[in-house]
Write the structure tokens for this entry.
Amino acid sequence: MSNFKSVVEQIRTLETERKNLMLEIDELKKMANSKAGALESEVNMLRDEVKSLRVLLGAEEQPEVDPGQQKKKQAHK
């Protein structure tokens, strides 16, 4: 009978731990979504700043270059 009691107690402990972990996961997901939103906003602001600087410098007719592609082109030279 004591074996049954220990199994029941182990189940309760694991259910509590599962509940706590699920709550932590939800909080981490919220934090990740918030951070992604903030980064997206910052990237959009930086894009706008690049466009403005291009206009100011008279370079608005140049297409945007992907930095990864630019590095690849330089490496092939």
